[in-house]
């Protein structure tokens, strides 16, 4: 039997090292950061964050997703799932290990699409932790889930491209030193998916204006609106080929969606741990909450959903590592795990009562962030549409839907 859910000893040892690092180094730093006024004590805030990365590098826990020649740990996606699921149990864990979004996905993109010169200029500073980046695709005027509708336009002028348009919800743009920008370069492509091209844009640049950081449910923390007006980039700053922006974006988003799921599993597990701990500590109406059937059902539902989520993430990661088609599995995992995250956190808040609704625990903050998961990197409904299309196609091709449900041997 080839199915085995145990880990190689080296991966298990790594998982435990990451867990210890998060408990002993990252969590205390999280607490110190939480006590700071980030305006008046910004220098101390930055010092703590930089120190986290220094300690991660010294501990040999730097960039689990990147090849060794770029300073990384060269883990496959199954191994990465182990690391991300431990790192994300603290707010700044993925940051400390330099494997947080959107930089993680941008590193993969540059590794596979950039020229040697572009890698030295843009990828190396990311890998060294000296720069941050953003991925500028979404626009307010058109549906973000359909990149063929992008209106940001670029035309060639000699050795340069001139770009104008409007982007928003560009995560990390406020702190980024460069962007991977998706713009329409082909007015009459053979297929709609061949209209866009990716460009590398230095920040700041003339013609790139950050209008604002958009206020969201969890505050104004780095999702920016950008105006692009006659922005000029050299031909050498095209990333990939002309008309390959859609292909590049989809190649980036598949593994990135699964990396989000890995981190969301960690958040859900934290919420479930807190739910159970609270139920064993709180006494009401003659018994502990843990002894009440209504609470037990919430715990049971959360445990079952988390189990499903872990299996889906591991299976999708194994398919990526095997080099086979993983689009359906990642799409199903992204849809399910995003919903599971919100439900488990919501139940944990309910068990905590007013305490859970306060900011005395991390649950309120986690809940605010969790709502974003159901439309980031593809709205629930778009994933459902694609899943249905692939299921119907599987039946048409094979007379069975089995290949659309994981293509598993049962």
TrEMBL record:
InterPro entries: Acyl-CoA_dehydrogenase, Acyl-CoA_Oxase/DH_mid-dom, Acyl-CoA_Oxase/DH_mid-dom_sf, AcylCo_DH-like_C, AcylCo_DH/oxidase_C, AcylCoA_DH/ox_N, AcylCoA_DH/ox_N_sf, AcylCoA_DH/oxidase_NM_dom_sf. GO terms for molecular function: acyl-CoA dehydrogenase activity; flavin adenine dinucleotide binding. SUPFAM superfamilies: Acyl-CoA dehydrogenase C-terminal domain-like, Acyl-CoA dehydrogenase NM domain-like. Residues 10-130 form the Acyl-CoA dehydrogenase/oxidase N-terminal domain. The keyword Flavoprotein applies. Keywords: FAD, Flavoprotein, Oxidoreductase. Residues 244-390 form the Acyl-CoA dehydrogenase/oxidase C-terminal domain. This is Acyl-CoA dehydrogenase family protein. The lineage of its organism: Bacteria, Bacillati, Actinomycetota, Acidimicrobiia, Acidimicrobiales.
